[in-house]
């Protein structure tokens, strides 16, 4: 779980429209070939590192597929499992895996989550043993990671809408989430989670971050929902960089990506001040991330027009929840491919050239069995020996939304989500 950042004061609302030079990008045959190869490699991780009986997906693996160290080798991420359930739907649709096999794996996962995995008021532990579901690392019952799991659960619910069992199990898992309990006495703001030893985590989702999916799930719940006013209870702070302003709280780029993997915010805007268009906000955040890296090139010459991208990842210094602008103190010139990969659905005109350039220039070192290594540093030559499930997942889902819009289409068929958007005041424009 990320530590909370220093929050910025809100600035006035602004127009986030793209400029005439930022026109829609049309995929070429070469683009499709690159994305097909990258996505199939990314999906391979979810096949090889998800248990066939529990459906739980490991947090990470080595880039060559070998077993990780003792600390990580059996530890699954409930968020990665949500990406994995969605990845299986993509695979079935594209013929990478037989639909019957995907159905069986999906059913096994939903049954395990329903019948055997430990829960608290419907919520799941962040980290669990991938074979048994046993809590690991004394992890928290996590609100945001359970929400990301529900992204996959509800995608499977609609992809297998005609199945006799999957839709029912998926609905039961979602409707069991006690969102009112996760408020921990607050009228509107959800907690980050709960520990059995110490109770609720003091931090709340009280400023813009990766949480829009969580709040929409809560508002749309027909069983344990919370007031739609919760959507307006967290702070909206603005950052300005090179004459671009966007909603953020100095958070890594993934906070602008994860909810959008499932929720289709295109063509929607809040119906009152500050009238945020969340999709366009993520477009702007992506473009600023690229410009920010380019502006750091004097200090870190590995950055360039097409070699860029900073978001939470491993580094030579260890795992860092870095972002920018403004500058994070530990930025060292590392590049995180899922910064561009996870934003393919927002700004393919700059993200596709970045992925191409990374592969062409450094592919022998950074592009392997599961696609790109989680991070690398072109300035000092460091390459991450690992891939991370959620980073592969956001790249795969974002690419699929760019190519077909399928994940958006499947997820938005859940009536609870369209209802939540309406209740929250996110109107079509």
List its salient traits.
single chain; 429 residues; mainly alpha; three-stranded antiparallel sheet; two-stranded antiparallel ribbon; 13 helices; globular; disordered N terminus
Hey, roughly how much beta strand do the residues contain? 5-15%
Largest sheet: 3 strands, antiparallel
Number of helices: 13
- Mass-distribution shape: globular
Oligomer: single chain
**End-to-end CA span:** 35 Å
The number of strands is 15
**Rg from Cα:** 20 Å
Instruction: Pick out the low-confidence regions.
Output: 1-21
Q: How would you write the strand order of the largest sheet? A: 6-7-8
Order of helices and strands: HEEHHEEEEHHHEEHEEEHHHEEEHHHE
Mean pLDDT: 93
Helix percentage range: 25-40%
Structural class by secondary-structure content: mainly alpha
Condensed summary:
The chain contains 13 helices and 15 strands. It is mainly α. The chain has a 3-stranded antiparallel β-sheet. A two-stranded antiparallel sheet has the order 1-14. Strands 2-5 form a two-stranded antiparallel sheet.
Description:
The protein has 429 residues and is mainly alpha-helical. It has 13 helices and 15 strands. The strands form seven sheets. The protein has a three-stranded antiparallel sheet with strand order 6-7-8. Strand 9 (238-241) and strand 10 form a beta hairpin. Helix 4 runs antiparallel to helix 5 and helix 7 (212-220) crosses helix 13. The two termini are 35 Å apart.
């Amino acid at each position: 779980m990320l530590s909370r950042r220093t929050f910025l004061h809100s600035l006035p609302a602004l127009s986030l429209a793209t400029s005439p030079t930022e026109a829609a990008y049309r995929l070429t045959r070469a683009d499709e070939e690159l994305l097909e190869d990258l996505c199939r490699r990314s999906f391979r991780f979810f096949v090889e590192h998800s248990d066939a009986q529990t459906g739980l997906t490991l947090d990470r693996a080595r880039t060559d597929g070998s077993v990780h160290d003792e600390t990580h080798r059996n530890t699954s991420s409930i968020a990665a499992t949500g990406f994995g359930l969605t990845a299986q739907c993509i695979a079935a649709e594209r013929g990478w895996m037989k639909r019957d096999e995907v159905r069986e794996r999906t059913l096994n996962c939903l049954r395990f989550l329903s019948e055997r995995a430990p829960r608290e008021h419907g919520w799941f532990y962040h980290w669990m043993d991938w074979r048994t579901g046993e809590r690991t690392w004394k992890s928290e019952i996590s609100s945001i990671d359970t929400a990301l799991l529900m992204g996959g659960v509800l995608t499977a619910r609609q992809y297998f809408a005609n199945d006799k069992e999957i839709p029912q199990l998926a609905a039961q898992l979602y409707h069991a989430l006690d969102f009112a309990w996760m408020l921990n006495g607050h009228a509107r703001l959800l907690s980050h989670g709960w520990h059995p030893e110490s109770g609720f985590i003091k931090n709340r989702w009280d400023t813009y971050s990766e949480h829009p999916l969580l709040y929409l799930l809560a508002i749309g719940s027909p069983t344990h929902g919370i007031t739609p006013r919760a959507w307006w209870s967290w702070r909206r702070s603005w950052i300005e960089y090179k004459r671009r302003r966007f909603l953020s709280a100095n958070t890594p780029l993934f906070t602008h990506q994860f909810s959008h993997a499932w929720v289709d915010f295109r063509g929607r805007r809040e119906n009152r001040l500050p009238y945020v268009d969340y999709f366009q906000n993520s477009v702007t955040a992506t473009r600023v991330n690229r410009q920010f890296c380019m502006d750091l090139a004097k200090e870190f010459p590995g950055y360039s027009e097409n070699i860029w991208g900073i978001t939470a990842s491993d580094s030579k210094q260890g795992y860092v929840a870095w972002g920018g602008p403004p500058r994070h103190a530990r930025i060292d010139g590392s590049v995180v491919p899922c910064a561009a990969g996870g934003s393919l659905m927002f700004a393919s005109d700059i993200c596709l050239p970045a992925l191409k350039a990374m592969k062409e220039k450094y592919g022998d070192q950074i592009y392997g069995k599961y696609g790109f290594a989680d991070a690398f540093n072109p300035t000092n030559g460091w390459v991450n020996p690992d891939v991370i499930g959620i980073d592969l997942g956001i790249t795969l889902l974002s690419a699929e939304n760019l190519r077909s819009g399928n994940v958006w289409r499947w997820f938005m068929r859940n009536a609870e989500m369209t209802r939540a958007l309406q209740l929250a005041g996110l109107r079509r424009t």
